[in-house]
Design a protein that fits this description.
Bound molecules: P-hydroxybenzoic acid
Helix content: 25-40%
Order of helices and strands: EEEHEHEEEEEHEHHHEHEHEHEHH
Structural class: alpha/beta
Low-confidence stretches: none
CATH superfamily of one domain: Aldolase class I
Strand content: 15-25%
Strand order of the largest sheet: 3-4-5-10-11-12-13-14
Largest sheet: 8 strands, parallel, barrel
Shape: globular
CATH architecture of one domain: Alpha-Beta Barrel
CATH topology of one domain: TIM Barrel
CATH class of one domain: Alpha Beta
Number of strands: 14
Distance between the termini: 32 Å
Mean pLDDT: 98
């Protein structure tokens, strides 16, 4: 067999992808009232359907899972209907789309929570930093530690959200286990001080994540479930005392399930330091396709796939400003730059007005 590259098809769990160029999950804050994805969001994803796979922006599984304004959820009938229009549009263009299941945990604020309650977390540890509430920046607050008997309810919320995603026509789901949100707060040692069977040793810290992944597999079948991890990302004030061991444990624990893929944000979004984790070892610990992410360009992505260091690569920013990214990469055409000012706010501008190449 010849050396694979970004344009070599691949079997990903239950799906056949025509290329290995994945659209990374990207928070865009364009949802309508009720956190419902609207017509602009339909157009945005339709324009990007040539990706081998689209992973949707992170979508809260329940009201308590929200931490940012205008993020589309997957817990109400109106949200399911909104997402259905998105998946129909992507499928009509011949594409495939997974929904990313999200719960922000402590990365929220009472003004974004039902009844103004404190956000929930594994432990009552306040994150450093500030949260955008929609009307300004506020300090994070000390979250409420979830009681042991509340944890089955968290798993149940993810399970229901996976069922909703299925009803909305998604091809599968990606469990967001990364970037300092709820499942990562349980997993990494800096944010989990629990003394029950969900805290302490890595087997315990990984328990909630593994239960959530298992629940998603029961809904979709493992071949339609991916997991996203970020072993050394310090974004959202998080860290782990031994990321190599923690994340290799998770990769090994999830391997027997036969998931569609392991998606890894490599390195640290908050610094330019070279990655300290050995990602080749992490990949080796996982029995399934490995999707690499974080700042890859065509040359690095091609080299990673050719060497076997990665099976697919997820691109974020380039997909914002290049809706036809696979065609551009194939043609070695110039890439348009994305405007950061419209990443997280605005309507059409910076969202659906980036043109495809003239052909
Ligand atoms: C963000 O809104 O900045 C954000 C959301 C989800 C992530 C990472 C960043 O996983």
């Amino acid at each position: 067999m010849s050396t694979p590259d970004l344009f070599t098809s691949i079997r990903l769990g239950a799906l056949d992808l025509p290329n290995r160029i994945v659209m990374a999950p990207l928070t865009r804050n364009r949802a309508l009232a009720g956190n419902v994805p609207g017509p602009l969001t339909v157009t945005y994803y339709r324009q990007r359907a040539s990706a081998g796979l689209i992973v949707s922006e992170a979508s809260p599984v329940c009201a308590e899972g929200h931490g940012y304004p205008r993020t589309p959820g997957i817990h109400s009938a109106a949200q399911v209907a909104g997402w259905r229009a998105v998946t129909d549009a992507v499928h009509a263009e011949g594409g495939r789309i997974f929904l990313q299941l999200w719960h922000v945990g402590r990365i929220s604020h009472p003004s974004l929570q039902p009844d103004g309650a404190a956000p929930v977390a594994p432990s009552a540890l306040k994150p450093a930093g500030q949260v955008w509430t929609g009307s300004g920046l506020s300090d994070y607050v000390t979250p409420r530690a979830l009681a042991r008997d509340e944890l089955p309810g968290i798993v149940a919320a993810y399970r229901q959200a996976a069922m909703n995603a299925k009803e909305a026509g998604f091809d599968g789901v990606e469990v967001h286990g990364a970037n300092g949100y709820l499942l990562d707060q349980f997993l990494r040692s800096s944010t989990n001080r629990r003394d029950d069977d969900y805290g302490g040793a890595v087997e315990n810290r990984a328990r909630l994540l593994c239960e959530v992944v298992q629940a998603a597999c029961e809904v979709f079948g493992a071949g339609r479930v991916g997991i996203r991890l970020s072993p050394e990302n310090r974004f959202n004030d998080i860290g782990d005392e031994n990321p190599q061991a923690t994340f290799e444990y998770v990769a090994r624990a999830l391997s027997p399930l036969g998931l569609a893929y392991l998606h890894v944000l490599e390195g640290d979004m908050t610094s330019d330091a070279a990655p300290a984790v050995d990602y080749a070892r992490l990949k080796a610990a996982f029995a399934g396709p490995y999707m690499a992410n974080n700042g890859y360009d065509k040359a690095r992505a091609t080299a990673a796939i050719a060497s076997g260091r990665a099976d697919l690569v997820a691109f974020g920013r380039p997909f914002i400003s290049n809706p036809d990214l696979p065609a551009r990469l194939a043609a070695d055409a110039p890439l348009a730059d994305a405007n950061p000012k419209t990443f997280y706010s605005g309507e059409e501008k910076g969202y659906i007005d980036y043109p495809a190449l003239e052909n």
